[in-house]
Design a protein that fits this description.
- Helix content is 0%, strand content 50%.
- It is globular, with a radius of gyration of 14 Å.
Length: 129
Amino acid sequence: QVQLVESGGGLVLAGSSLRLSCAGSASGQTFAPYAMGWFRQAPGKVREFVGGIDWSEGNTRYADSVKGRFTISTNNVKNTLFLQMNMLKSEDTAVYYCAARPAVGTTTVYTDASDYRYWGQGTQVTVSS
């Protein structure tokens, strides 16, 4: 049983920074290897890809809307995913979800929600202008 728990959301002013965390665990097993990603969903909109990272080499990909402002990283043991969000805009307001999928023998960074198997419960990010 894989669990993902996000934290770090909140209400901030436009131009501020926020860091989200996603703690991964697997019952009775080491949480590895998993490709991971962040998605977000604003009210009335479809869930969209924000950024992702592969397990093996740490390659990252970002949505054009966040490129240069958001950074994905993991801790040393790769069971916690971070999303550093800088220069936040009102259009970044959404529920942010962490996702993971098994990634044995691949360096692919997955960008489609359907590629992911496990999801966190989401954390709300609200950017006030």
